[in-house]
Write a sequence for this structure.
C-alpha cells in the first residue's frame, strides 16, 4: 500500500585556525555526553511510513532515549482513523504517561480534512500536549500531499500551520520542501503535481500523491533536531562545534575572541577561516584561497560543525554574487546538512561602494528563507536597530571613527567589531528576539 524509496545520506569528512583539538562527531549517533531524551511522534498514515523507514531508530540514535510513533491511517485531530480507531486527541490520553517524559514531540496531522475547524483543533491539541509536557520541544510537519481535489484545503491548512508556529510554540518541518526542494512553496501546492519520479496514486478522486518518500522526511526531521541543537544556548552537555568563514571582518572577530566565546557558549570547538580581500570566488591576500577553495581544505571540520557563520560579500569580486552565494551554501550544506547557518550582512560605508553593497544586502536578505540561513546584521550592530541595511548611508562614519585611509572615498570598512561579536552571540543564543534568534533557543531559557 505504501511506496517507499530509500536514499543513503552520505556525509564526507575532512580542516585552519583552531581553538582546541577537534571533538569527533557522527551524524547518526547519540551526541557525546548528552543526557538521553525521549521523543514522541503523533501522526496519521505518514507516521506509518516513517515507522517503516525506521524513524524510531534514527530518533533514538540522535537523542539517546526511547522513541514512539502513534499513527493511524485517515485519522485527524478530532476523528478516529481506520486501524486503532483513535483520534489524535484520544491517543494523547492513551499515551499521557509516555508523553510526560518526552523531550521532543513531533506532530504530523492536518492532511485528513475532517475537523470542524482545523485552527481551533490545532490549538486544542497543543494545549493538551503542553499541559502534559510543558518543557518539550514541539515540531509540526506541514502537508505535502498533492491530490488535485484536496489541494485548496491543504494550502489553507499549511497557512495555519506556519502562521501559528510562533503563537503556539512549535517549529515547522517541511515535508513539502523535503520532497520538492528548498525553493518549493508549501502555501502554493500545485494541484495534481506528482512527487519527483512518481505517477499519480490510485484510489483518490484526482491525480497527485499522498504517500511515499518517507526517507526524505526522516532526514528533514533529524536535520531539524540538529539545527535546534546548534542554536540552543542552554546545555553544554553536547559539543557543538562552530565554523566561521569570512574575509577581513572575520579576522577582526577572531582578534575579538569570538571563537573562545562561541566555544564557551556552545561547548564545542570553534574554527576560523579568514582572508583579507577575499570573496566567495576570488583568493585573498594571506592564504591566497577563495572561500570556495577554503571549504575543500576544511571539509573534515565542516562536516562536524553545528553552527556555520558566513561573513562574505564586502569584496565585490564575484562575477555574480547572486549565483556565487547559492553555490557556496550548496557546497557547505552537502558537507554539513544538519548545521545551523548564519550570514552576516555588509556593514561597510565607503561611499563609492555603497550601491553595490546595498544590492548585495538585498540578495542576502531575500535568499535567507530560500537558502536556509539566518541573517545577522553587522550594519544594525554598528548603527542601531532602526537603520536599514538595504539603504546604507554613503560615507557615514562608524560611531567614533574617522574616514578610513586607503580608500578612494569617505566611510569605513573595518572596526566596530565588538558590537558585531555581541550580535552574533545574541542571535545564536536566541537573546535577540526580533533580529534572528529562533524560538527553540529562546525556549531553552524559559521552555515553551
Amino acid at each position: 500500500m505504501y511506496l517507499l524509496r530509500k536514499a543513503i545520506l552520505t556525509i564526507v569528512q575532512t580542516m585552519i585556525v583552531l581553538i582546541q583539538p577537534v571533538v569527533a562527531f557522527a551524524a547518526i549517533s547519540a551526541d557525546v555526553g548528552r543526557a538521553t531524551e525521549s521523543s514522541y511522534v503523533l501522526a496519521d498514515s505518514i507516521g506509518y511510513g516513517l515507522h517503516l523507514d525506521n524513524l524510531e531508530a534514527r530518533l533514538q540514535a540522535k537523542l539517546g532515549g526511547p522513541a514512539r510513533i502513534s499513527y493511524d491511517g485517515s485519522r485527524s485531530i478530532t476523528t478516529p482513523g481506520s486501524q486503532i480507531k483513535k483520534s489524535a486527541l484520544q491517543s494523547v490520553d492513551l499515551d499521557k504517561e509516555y508523553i510526560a517524559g518526552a523531550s521532543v514531540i513531533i506532530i504530523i496531522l492536518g492532511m485528513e480534512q475532517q475537523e470542524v475547524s482545523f485552527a481551533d483543533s490545532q490549538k486544542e491539541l497543543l494545549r493538551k500536549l503542553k499541559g502534559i509536557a510543558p518543557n518539550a520541544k514541539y515540531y509540526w510537519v506541514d502537508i505535502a500531499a498533492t491530490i488535485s481535489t484536496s489541494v485548496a484545503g491543504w494550502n489553507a491548512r499549511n497557512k495555519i500551520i506556519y502562521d501559528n508556529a510562533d503563537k503556539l510554540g512549535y517549529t515547522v518541518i517541511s515535508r513539502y520542501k523535503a520532497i520538492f526542494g528548498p525553493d518549493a512553496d508549501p502555501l502554493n501546492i500545485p494541484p495534481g503535481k506528482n512527487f519527483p519520479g512518481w505517477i499519480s496514486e490510485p484510489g483518490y478522486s484526482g491525480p497527485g500523491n499522498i504517500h511515499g518518500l518517507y526517507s526524505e522526511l526522516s532526514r528533514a526531521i533529524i536535520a531539524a533536531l540538529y539545527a535546534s541543537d546548534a542554536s540552543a544556548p542552554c546545555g553544554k552537555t553536547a559539543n557543538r562545534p562552530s565554523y566561521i568563514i569570512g574575509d577581513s571582518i572575520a579576522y577582526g572577530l577572531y582578534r575579538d575572541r569570538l571563537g573562545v566565546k562561541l566555544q564557551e557558549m556552545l561547548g564545542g570547538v570553534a574554527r576560523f577561516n579568514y582572508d583579507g580581500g577575499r570573496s566567495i570566488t576570488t583568493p585573498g591576500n594571506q592564504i591566497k584561497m577563495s572561500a570556495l577553495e577554503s571549504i575543500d581544505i576544511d571539509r573534515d571540520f565542516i562536516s562536524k560543525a553545528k553552527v556555520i557563520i558566513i561573513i562574505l560579500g564586502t569584496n565585490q569580486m564575484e562575477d555574480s554574487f547572486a549565483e556565487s552565494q547559492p553555490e557556496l551554501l550548496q557546497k557547505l550544506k552537502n558537507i554539513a546538512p544538519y548545521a545551523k547557518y548564519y550570514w552576516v550582512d555588509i556593514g561597510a560605508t565607503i561611499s563609492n561602494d555603497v550601491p553595490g553593497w546595498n544590492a548585495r544586502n538585498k540578495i542576502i536578505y531575500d535568499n535567507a528563507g530560500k537558502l536556509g540561513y539566518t541573517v545577522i546584521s553587522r550594519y544594525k550592530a554598528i548603527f542601531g536597530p532602526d537603520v536599514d541595511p538595504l539603504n546604507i548611508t554613503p560615507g557615514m562614519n562608524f560611531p567614533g571613527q574617522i574616514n578610513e585611509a586607503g580608500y578612494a572615498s569617505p566611510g569605513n570598512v573595518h572596526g566596530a567589531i565588538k558590537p558585531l561579536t555581541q550580535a552574533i552571540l545574541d542571535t545564536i543564543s536566541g537573546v535577540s528576539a526580533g533580529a534572528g534568534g529562533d524560538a527553540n533557543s529562546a525556549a531553552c531559557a524559559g521552555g515553551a
Q: What stands out?
A: The chain has two domains: 35-229, 237-437. The first strand starts at residue 17 and ends at 18. Residues 1-34, 232-237, 431-448 have pLDDT under 50 and may be disordered.
